[in-house]
Amino acid sequence: MTDRSHITTHVLDAANGSPAQGVSVELALLADGWNAVASRTTDEQGRISDLGPAALEPGIYRLTFDTASYFGRDVRSTFYPRIDITVEIAAVDEHYHVPILLSPFAFTTYRGS
């Protein structure tokens, strides 16, 4: 395991063709309800490389992206004011990267590397 977080993200704004800087992201663990683990904001490259610790216990996690605030800064409306991505962390020795490609009216995600 490296020094980076067990789970990371990268947000790109497809409508602008640029990194989505300043998107707030919360990481939560499902255990008797959702329990916040960490929260960070994307950097100038749209990345968060320190979302949570270097190791997470196996479980179901949710990444919540505050897209309403991001689009609101440019006075752009969005159909998706919040994006919740739920993932399962099964292997403690693997890195999990969850990128988002977004626009005001669409988004896509996949397990990255």
TrEMBL record:
Q: What are the record keywords, sorted?
A: Hydrolase, Purine metabolism
Report the transmembrane regions from the record. Answer: none
What InterPro entries does the entry give?
Hydroxyisourate_hydrolase (IPR014306), Thyroxine_BS (IPR023418), Transthyretin/HIU_hydrolase (IPR000895), Transthyretin/HIU_hydrolase_d (IPR023416), Transthyretin/HIU_hydrolase_sf (IPR036817)
Q: Tell me, what's a Pfam family for it?
A: Transthyretin
Annotated CDD domains = TLP_HIUase (cd05822)
Main EC class of this protein?
hydrolase
GO molecular function terms here? Answer: hydroxyisourate hydrolase activity
Q: What Enzyme Commission number does this protein have?
A: 3.5.2.17
What the entry lists under PROSITE patterns is as follows:
TRANSTHYRETIN_1 (PS00768)
- Domain Transthyretin/hydroxyisourate hydrolase residues, every copy: 2-112
Q: Which reaction does it catalyse?
A: 5-hydroxyisourate + H2O = 5-hydroxy-2-oxo-4-ureido-2,5-dihydro-1H-imidazole-5-carboxylate + H(+)
Query: Which sites bind substrate?
Result: 10, 47, 110
Q: Name one GO biological process term.
A: purine nucleobase metabolic process
| Self-association state and partner proteins as the record states | Homotetramer.
The family annotation for this protein states:
Belongs to the transthyretin family. 5-hydroxyisourate hydrolase subfamily.
Q: Which PANTHER family match?
A: 5-HYDROXYISOURATE HYDROLASE, URICASE AND TRANSTHYRETIN-RELATED
The UniProt function text for this chain reads: Catalyzes the hydrolysis of 5-hydroxyisourate (HIU) to 2-oxo-4-hydroxy-4-carboxy-5-ureidoimidazoline (OHCU).
Record protein name field: 5-hydroxyisourate hydrolase
